[in-house]
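FYI - complex with magnesium ion, inputs then prediction.
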Amino acid sequence: MKGFVDLDRVSLRYGGEDDGTLALHEATLKVALGEFVAVVGPSGCGKSTLMKVVTGLWPPTAGSIAVSGREVTGPLSIVGMAFQNPTLLPWRTTLANIMLPLEIVRPHCTRLRRERASYEAKVRDLLALVGLKGFEDHFPWQLSGGMQQRASLCRALIHDPSLLMLDEPFASLDMFTREELWMALQDLWLARQPTVILVTHDLREAAFLADRVLVMSARPGRIVAERTVDLPRPRALEVTYEPYSVALVHELREHISASRTQTACKG
Amino acid sequence: MSETVETPVRRGKPPLIRRKTLRRILPWIVIVTFFALWEIFVRLFEIEQFVLPAPSAIFAAGWQWRWPILDNSWQTFMTTAIGFLIAVAFGLLAGLAIGSSSLIYDGFYPALIGFNSIPKVAIIPILVIWFGIGTVPAIITAFLISFFPILVNVATGIATMEPELQDVLRALGARRWQVIMKVGLPRSMPYFFASLKVAITFAFVGSIVAETVAANKGIGHLMLVASSRFEVPLAFAGLLVTSVMGIGMYAVAAAIEQRMTGWAMRGADGGMNAPPA
Ligand SMILES: Nc1ncnc2c1ncn2[C@@H]1O[C@H](COP(=O)(O)OP(=O)(O)OP(=O)(O)O)[C@@H](O)[C@H]1O
Ligand SMILES: [Mg+2]
């Protein structure tokens, strides 16, 4: 079977052959078109690296990556990526930061000049959705860490990408805001069906949002386990407290804890 | 005990305002005191006017010769401005090229440093051979002396682009030039405007030096003529006008910097007036 995202024994080493860090070791995974996949694993195991490899930002040391049936050789333009750090451009206001993808990605970049007003309205709607109404004209340093993260999420969504890569997008939010955004993300996914790869440390989040959860081993990262989440959509927040989800979270926790101790013994 | 808690609140505001006004008038106090001491010094020791004229004599000479001074200042201002603008255009473009390509950087940088080490005064006679005495050598000197800081700053700003910010654009499929236009250039703007303040004074020095050596007009030429005729107060008046113009040009560059790179300063006062800890 060919997936929409297809990684075949991908390895990545940062730095030189001998003294570099092996971040990924023969990671293999497939994601179907329109699927929502969550990736969990211990800190430093190579999750962010996996994201960079899939989007073509870093070429792999070995192995091959294909997205949408085509070999990835450089950065892709169908991707919306929310980085682990918000990385907003400090000289741009929130609004201008979120407009950025529209200035680059086709076909928006050609339309932007003529349809600026309608695009701006779209940005404002998105900002309202994540609770940033009224902060359009603020600069990044006038926003809190969590607010920056939400703005960065908006930037990943604005151009309707067909592949959404989210690297711990809710990490610095309180639980209530986080749960609100889970619902918003689920609605968005149900409406447009993009393919989503979500990296998270929150197992409840993974179980609630994803169709499938992948567990990575400690560094060098590899997919060591995967679990399909059989819950009907749309899901309500209460399901995270039902026995099925609780058991799932528990099982994922076991997997991660096992992969951590394994390397601890080896090293 | 309650008093010690209250005092900082009551006292908090007035010192800050007083500090601000003090800051504003302090430069004037320094200048006035300087001239006053100078005047006293000259009168006390009865120094001859052709050695060191008193400020009063300088101001008098300045007033007496106001039209020639204005005329020549305008000339100097124009040569400086033209040389400076060429330097800005060239520095920006060359900085862009050098900062965005490590190949161009490696190739050109050593040569540029070598060129910059040449004292520009030494070039003026050659310029005179090529262009004759007049405005052109002054413009070229102003340009040559002031483009380097602009170039280096723009190049540094672009070359030190954070990889994280580059990735934001690359992840969208942006081309290399788009990354430079959207990230490199805006991010180098604080460096660029900071360098303008240095470059404008350099350009000014350059054109005046060239005027004293090879011109028939300009404030540098005026000072040269004045001192050859032993009109020492007039020469000093020229110096005075020069420094006033220098301050003026610096102030303009600083004001533009403030307007354009407010994001890097984080607010209007640049944090300079933050209350002392
Ligand atoms: N640019 C880089 N250069 C060199 N080494 C790197 C670089 N980025 C990451 N690494 C190394 O690769 C390993 C994996 O890093 P990565 O950022 O992928 O971890 P992660 O799973 O995202 O961790 P976290 O959950 O803490 O975000 C780490 O050991 C790190 O030291
Ligand atoms: Mg990470």
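Residues 45 and 219 of chain A are 4 Å apart (CA to CA). The interface with chain B takes residues 52, 55, 57, 75-79, 81, 83, 85, 87, 89-92, 100-101, 103-105, 139, 141, 159 of chain A (CB under 8 Å).
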